[in-house]
Amino acid sequence: MGEVHDGWSPEQGYAAWSDAQLVDAVGASDRGALHELFARHEPWLATRLSRRCADRALVDTAVQDTFLAVWRKPQGWRGEGDVAAWLWGIAVRSLLHQLRPRANVLERLRNLRSSPATSAEEEVLARVEHSDVGVAFARLSPDLQAVVQATVLDGLTTREAAALLGIPSGTVKSRMSRARTELREALL
Fold first, then answer.
1. Which residues make up the CATH 1.10.1740.10 domain(s) of the chain?
2. φ, ψ dihedrals at 168, nearest 5°
3. 94-to-51, 63, 116, 156, 158 alpha-carbon distances in Å
4. Which SUPFAM superfamilies match (predicted)?
5. pTM, whole model, 2 decimals?
6. What average pLDDT does the chain have?
7. Secondary-structure class of domain 12-104 per CATH
8. How far apart are alpha carbons 4 and 6 in whole angstroms?
9. Angle value at C-alpha 164, between 162 and 170, nearest 5 degrees
10. What is the pLDDT of residues 133-183, one digit of tens each?
């Protein structure tokens, strides 16, 4: 961790540091590095989470919990992949944790579907809507589309997708299997 601080000067600040260097510095209890990570990533995390949950208080709590988790366990990032992807994983799991005690997650998801804001994944899907993949995806039932979005696009585990969708883990697995089969057949 000592190399993180090499070349640092007060004039330069943390802005020149990579995300990986900042996480290493957080591991050395550097609050300034955590602040810089927060400044870089909080805006897009809050935006993406708000597309999953209309309750701004839950989104804010999930974002705060994300950076608290980074502070408490920066070694959770193993130096592989993008720090932003690691942060997104923490954030979406934190949001799920916020949603769990709430009644009827499916009703909240239905309300989100009627909101005008679209997720980044939905925007990508809209771009490929008329491609073979987009047409095949559109032909899936809403139940299968929800499972594909949760597991493939959001990167949730089967258990997390089950909690988000309010269905058993086995149902997530069977729906994902059915979706794969239907997509494969449509793309042949």
1. 12-104
2. -65, 155
3. 15, 8, 24, 12, 16
4. Sigma2 domain of RNA polymerase sigma factors, Sigma3 and sigma4 domains of RNA polymerase sigma factors
5. 0.53
6. 81
7. mainly alpha
8. 6
9. 5
10. 777 878 889 899 888 888 887 778 888 888 878 899 999 999 999 999 998
Structure tokens at 154: 């959001």
**Given a cut of 50, is residue 4 above it in pLDDT?**
no
Pick the closest to residue 125 from 152, 143, 107, 106 (CA basis). 152
Identify the DSSP state of 76: G
Report how far residue 51's alpha carbon sits from residue 119's, in angstroms, rounded to the nearest whole number: 5
- Sequence-distant (6+) residues with CB within 8 A of 138 are 129
Question: What is the distance between the alpha carbons of residues 8 and 6, in angstroms, rounded to a whole number?
Answer: 6
The C-alpha atoms of residue 31 and residue 165 are separated, in whole angstroms, by 37
Measured distance CA(49)–CA(63) in Å, rounded: 8
Say if residue 187 is exposed, middle or buried (CB neighbours under 10 Å; 0-12, 13-18, 19+).
exposed
Copy the structure tokens of residue 65. 């919990």
Nearest CA among 6, 38, 1 for reference residue 19: 38
Are the CB atoms for 99 and 105 separated by under 8 Å?
Answer: yes
**Topology annotation, domain 118-188:** Arc Repressor Mutant, subunit A (1.10.10)
Q: Where in the chain is the domain with CATH 1.10.10.10?
A: 118-188
